[in-house]
Amino acid sequence: MHLDPLDEQILAGEQGETRQKMLELLVALGKVFGAERLVPIKSAQVSGASYKTIGKYGLAWLVSLDAKAVVPAVLNPIGMPRGRWQEMGVDPGFAENQNAVVAAYEQLGIRLDCTCTPYYLYETRLGDHLAWSESSAVCYANSVIGARTNREGGPSALAAALIGKTPCYGFHLSKNRLPRIVIDVHADTKHWSIADYGALGYHAGKLVGNRIPYFRGISPAPDQLKAIGAAMAATGAVALYHVEDVTPEAKINHYDLAGLEIIPVESADIARLFTEIPVEAVAVGCPHCSPAELGEIARLLAGKTVTKPFYIFASQGVIDQNRQVVETIERTGARVYADTCMVVSPVMEKYSAIMVNSGKALAYVPDMCGALARIGTIEDCVNVATE
Q1: Residue 306 pLDDT
Q2: pLDDT at position 359
Q3: Long-range CB contacts (< 8 A, 24+ apart) of 302-305?
Q4: Helix (H, G, I), strand (E, B), or coil: what is residue 326?
Q5: Least CB-packed of 125, 143, 145, 359 within 10 Å?
């Protein structure tokens, strides 16, 4: 692998042991995947943020590091809302450990936005090289924006943040961004909701695995694109997809689809994922809600009062930019929490069945929360939370 003189200095330990170890990690990763060089990145997004997932050994490793991020770097959701953890019912012992994790990342120069939707807060452009780690964020960046990132592990994303570069392999290379399978959607999608597109992603991810799908027959809006990719990343290992005449690379490139396997998806394949099981709580915002989603929730909740726990998750930045909308939501008894989500917060483990509006949550809630999951539209979620 080609390294420039500054890289060689870092490897020699001239900028400290932590940066030396971080670059050693990136070089080793690059050699495994055949990278010829490192590529400078515009930003990093670092997972391994919830104490629920990294535990005491992960925390001990973070505390041992001594360096600062050299590019904008955002933290993934943590296990609780930092300013409202008591209200959410988080155990004080967990809160103490979670705050220690956050403090360790802050010491490393990582921005404490604690979100899986950094693209709502920081400008990311077509062709930008990134080192992002959260699966739905990676899929959105690659597919909807046309930026370039592999699905980094927490340590490699942190290493890239501290070095400012990542190995140039995988989705950083144009040759690896071509469609590998075609999905033809045979359904009337004109009135499909975010949940319908999330269900499509849930179904499609199981069909395609880690291949790059090319969708035909759909015209999703940005929040619906977010839902497709997040679900495919959860049920498969999809980090990039294309939608005919919608996503940027599908519009720029005239892909030759000849010879690719074609998988049909029918309305019935999606409809069967929508069930009527009783639930104890309702949770939306996986991935974190956009301003438009918060506005829709507020509109649907107008004049109503919640009768069961209703959790809404969004980044602190989006909450701050939409304070009136959030206040409207919370007057009904629903709660809008920053920093966390239903998947990484231990609070959600007390419920045996949870209603969600995303295919990603439908996939993750059973394993991460130990609960049954029911998917529905945002309108369905509001109706169930207020019935």
Answers
A1: 98
A2: 97
A3: 302/328, 304/332, 304/382, 304/386, 305/332, 305/333, 305/386
A4: helix
A5: 125
The residues of the chain that CATH labels 3.30.499.10 are 5-174, 281-386
For residue 254, the model assigns a pLDDT of: 87
Q: 264-287, pLDDT tens digit by residue?
A: 999 999 999 999 999 999 999 999
The helix-helix angle for 222-235 and 194-208 (nearest 10°) equals: 30
How far is Cα 22 from Cα 43, in angstroms, rounded to an integer? 16
Which residue, chain included where needed, has tokens 């950083």?
172
Which helix or strand (DSSP H or E) is residue 186 part of?
Answer: strand 181-186
pTM: 0.96
234, two tokens: 């959860």
Query: Regarding the domain delimited by 281-386, which CATH topology (the fold level of the hierarchy) does it fall under?
Result: Aconitase; domain 3 (3.30.499)
pLDDT reading at 364 higher than 90: yes
Mean pLDDT of 48-58: 93
Question: In terms of CATH, what superfamily is 5-174?
Answer: Aconitase, domain 3 (3.30.499.10)
Residue listed under structure tokens 């919608």: 246
CB-CB neighbours of 112 under 10 Å: 16
190: buried, middle or exposed (CB in 10 Å: 19+, 13-18, 0-12)? exposed
Task: Transcribe 37-98 into DSSP letters.
Answer: BEEE-SEEEE----HHHHHHHHHHHHHT-----SS-EEEPP-SS-TTTHHHHT--HHHHHHH
Task: Yes or no: say if 342 and 369 are a contact pair by the CB < 8 Å rule.
Answer: yes
The two structure tokens encoding residue 125 = 């452009």
Question: Which region holds residue 48: left if phi is over 0, alpha if psi is between -120 and 50, else beta?
Answer: left
Q: 138's torsion region: left (phi>0), alpha (psi -120 to 50) or beta? A: alpha
Render the burial of 28-44: b for 16+ CB within 10 Å, e for the rest. Answer: ebbeeeebeebbebbbb
Q: Take residue 209 and report the two structure tokens written for it.
A: 């695995």
Q: What is the dihedral of CA 54, 59, 62, 64, to 10 degrees?
A: -140
Task: Report whether 310 contacts 335 (CB < 8 A).
Answer: yes
